[in-house]
């Protein structure tokens, strides 16, 4: 039975929401070059890579955006380190930064510390650079999700993002995405990442409030072949 609450987005429409991602530690330059070529062929919004892989050669006229992670994957870096890493990534061509919060600060309900952390990175990479804040929602209570989302918005984040995809607690859930979207309202967007493997997964996350998706197995997802869906991020 079809769930009428799920938007019937076409694969092409879903592709335009995807940050096509490669963050494995063993990724090579050749792997990232292949990632870019695949992203262009699939029509994804961007590629998301480790900052050490920058700069990237993007085909002229493709419109492909470049995102890089900061403080990844633990978030247990100083704010100054995150800010410097983000600024260096932007100088090397990144259009967007996906930063990881200190999840321990969130668990301690020290939302002022979370806000200060995000503020430091935002100051280092002002608009028009897009700043996404990874909160590891699966490791947080609802109260903590609300607290960190409010802190991120106050600090000037453009997106709050569910997960790194590397945390053992898991990735995106519809519940978390919906709660995040309700919390940030029209002040920011929500990116769902971690475990988004099929078109139905993607459509459910969009229905819950996501406007961007982090996907490493984009070709499998857009071909709606869950057997080939990506693990992890």
From TrEMBL:
GO terms for molecular function: deoxyribose-phosphate aldolase activity. InterPro entries: Aldolase_TIM (IPR013785), DeoC (IPR011343), DeoC/FbaB/LacD_aldolase (IPR002915), DeoC_typeI (IPR028581). Keywords: Cytoplasm, Lyase, Schiff base. GO terms for cellular component: cytoplasm. One of its GO terms (biological process) is 2-deoxyribose 1-phosphate catabolic process. This is Deoxyribose-phosphate aldolase. The keyword Cytoplasm applies. Its EC number is 4.1.2.4. Belongs to the DeoC/FbaB aldolase family. DeoC type 1 subfamily. It is found in: Cytoplasm. It is an enzyme of class 4 (lyase). Catalyzes a reversible aldol reaction between acetaldehyde and D-glyceraldehyde 3-phosphate to generate 2-deoxy-D-ribose 5-phosphate. It comes from Friedmanniella luteola. The active site is at 98 (proton donor/acceptor), 161 (schiff-base intermediate with acetaldehyde), 191 (proton donor/acceptor). It catalyses: 2-deoxy-D-ribose 5-phosphate = D-glyceraldehyde 3-phosphate + acetaldehyde. It comes from the Bacteria. The keyword Cytoplasm applies. NCBIfam families: deoC. Pathway: Carbohydrate degradation; 2-deoxy-D-ribose 1-phosphate degradation; D-glyceraldehyde 3-phosphate and acetaldehyde from 2-deoxy-alpha-D-ribose 1-phosphate: step 2/2.
């Amino acid at each position: 039975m079809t769930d009428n609450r799920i938007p019937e987005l076409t694969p092409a429409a879903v592709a335009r929401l995807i940050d096509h991602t490669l963050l494995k530690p063993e990724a090579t330059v050749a792997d990232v070059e292949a990632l870019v070529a695949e992203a262009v062929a699939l029509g994804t919004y961007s590629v998301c890579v480790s900052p050490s892989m920058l700069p990237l050669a993007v085909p002229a006229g493709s419109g492909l955006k470049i995102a890089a992670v900061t403080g990844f994957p633990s978030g247990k870096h100083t704010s100054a380190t995150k800010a410097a890493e983000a600024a260096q990534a932007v100088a090397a061509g990144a259009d967007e930064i996906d930063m990881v919060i200190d999840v321990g600060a969130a668990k301690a309900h020290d939302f002022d510390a979370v806000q200060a952390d995000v503020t430091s990175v935002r100051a280092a990479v002002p608009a028009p650079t897009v700043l996404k804040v990874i909160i590891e929602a699966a490791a947080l209570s609802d109260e903590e999700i609300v607290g960190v989302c409010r802190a991120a918005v106050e600090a000037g984040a453009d997106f709050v993002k569910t997960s790194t995809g590397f945390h053992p607690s898991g990735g995106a859930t519809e519940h978390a995405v919906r709660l995040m979207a309700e919390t940030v309202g029209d002040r920011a967007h929500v990116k769902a990442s971690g475990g988004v493997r099929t078109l139905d997964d993607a459509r459910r996350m969009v229905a819950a409030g996501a406007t961007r998706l982090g996907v490493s197995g984009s070709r499998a997802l857009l071909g709606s072949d869950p057997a080939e869906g990506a693990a992890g991020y």
